[in-house]
Specification:
The protein is α/β, with parallel strands linked by helices and about 290 residues long. The protein is built from eleven helices and ten strands. Strand 1 and strand 2 form a beta hairpin. Helix 1 crosses helix 6. It is globular.
Amino acid sequence: MVTNVFSPLQKSKHPSRNQILVKRDDLIDPYISGNKWRKLKYILLQAKNTNKNHLVTFGGAYSNHLVATAAACARSGIKSTGFVRGDAVENEMLLLCKLFGMELIFTDRDSYRNKYLLYNTYFHQNPSTYFVDEGGASKEAIIGCAEIIDELPDDIDHLFCAAGTGTTAAGLLKGIQQRGLKTILHVIPVLKAGSFITDEIFKYTGSVEQLNLHTDYHFGGYAKTTPKLITYIKTFIAQEGILIDPVYTAKMFYAIDDLLLKGAFKAGEKIVALHTGGLLGIMGMKDKLYKD
């Protein structure tokens, strides 16, 4: 794992986004990027402190988390196993996992739902293994994501992030609370019916007073896109010179642009968008992105 974090705060280049600063966590590492690095940082430390040398985790066939875990384990000199949801397939993401030494176990979707049972079925007699939930969701991940706030100015009015499980968002809100900041956290769920994320965040923070959930920017649900979103991605990347992915960050930036257009923020307010990385996920959408 990298130890010196490179995650600058970069001003948007496009005139319509002159209030926007981008926290470039995508630049931390090409494979353990963004919130994946933040989450795995303390998971690896906890595994080491409990004398575990084999991380076992879960994800879909295009999971950024699986790639990040495989890379982080290879660099840390420990083993990794990934339970992959669905039929056995071959793709660029799983190739990277294998190259980093991860053992892949393809699992039918019904069995995948009970991750602890899967883990215990395969590894209950192996005391060297360490369970890591899908996406790295854990209290250690919350601690790692909360540290992002320490790298930001105190006078931010609005902080945006995309969310799947809500782990990163919970860490951000926890960090805001710990620092006693006035910042409002805006969360863009990338799943349909993403309002459950409020409850998930509350479990870790005890308060959601400074949370604003925007549930209308999922574009059909997790890993779903529309022609409008694909067009937006191409335009944004050409304008900013910053890659974004269709699953998470594109939906967040679209939401910010839409809210700006609707006058949701006051002039002069400082807005930060957290780029959570995950750019390898573009590979799962390459056919759509190739189209004009």
